[in-house]
Amino acid sequence: MKREKKLYPESGVELSPFTASNYDMLMNTVSFGAYGKFIRKAIDGIGIKATDSIIDLGCGTGRNAALMVNYLGETGKITGIDLSTIMQKQFEARFAGEKRATFRQQRIDVPFDLGEKADVIFISFVLHGFPQQVREVILENVKNHLKPDGVFAILDFAEFEMAKMPALHRWVFTTFECPYAFDFVERDWKKILGSKGFDSPSEKLYFKNYIRLLKVTIGG
Ligand SMILES: C[S@@+](CC[C@H](N)C(=O)[O-])C[C@H]1O[C@@H](n2cnc3c(N)ncnc32)[C@H](O)[C@@H]1O
Fold this sequence. Notes:
- It is a single chain.
- This protein is of the alpha/beta class.
- The protein has one domain (17-218): Vaccinia Virus protein VP39 (Rossmann fold).
- It is 34% helix and 24% strand.
- The protein has helices spanning 17-21, 23-30, 35-44, 63-68, 85-94, 132-145, 167-176, 180-184, 189-195, and strands at 53-57, 77-82, 101-105, 118-124, 146-157, 198-206, 211-218.
- A seven-stranded mixed sheet has the order 3-2-1-4-5-7-6, with helices on both faces.
- β1, α4 (63-68) and β2 form a beta-alpha-beta unit.
- The radius of gyration is 17 Å and the shape is globular.
- S-adenosylmethionine is lined by residues 7, 13-15, 58-60, 63-64, 82-84, 87, 107-109, 124-126.
């Protein structure tokens, strides 16, 4: 399958057809099998309620959505949003016959309107992969789709100074991560989110504090 031209040339979250087709397997392999346990724990940390409606931005294969749907009762629902048709196929195959999960093919880096708001908006390993002005568009999309007192949960790199990383960690990070991630990790995301009207930040750290689940709410 031919690779489409990237919207953002240095982005590592716009995946090649090979990576998109094998994404879950690759995550298990590069983490030496640790990813499954980690992602279950991280998703448990969101605090999903049975009646929640959830939006998963850049949902990928639906692996995370499949964990989140376990917390939902009959009236809960999840909408996975992604631009990739390769991801769409995997998501829809995973949720065949499951009415609570639907996929929408949609770019999240431009303003959009789903016509409804959610109790929880989740974005996992996507936000770091854009230039800062594009991340700000994504935050606006979140604000426009979150119910009062809703939860916005970002699972992504935590905050750290690259200069202070052990040399091997820095080499791995700078060799395999996209350059957009380099400024992402050095920004004060609690402050940025606060300036956009999000409040009550709380966080959980994983993988030697390099990965973080950062949750904020939005006042009513
Ligand atoms: C690194 S993967 C993460 C997938 C999933 N969130 C996870 O944690 O397993 C990044 C995902 O973001 C999607 N993506 C990248 N750019 C996007 C955009 N502009 N709009 C919507 N989805 C996008 C990709 O297709 C891919 O599925």
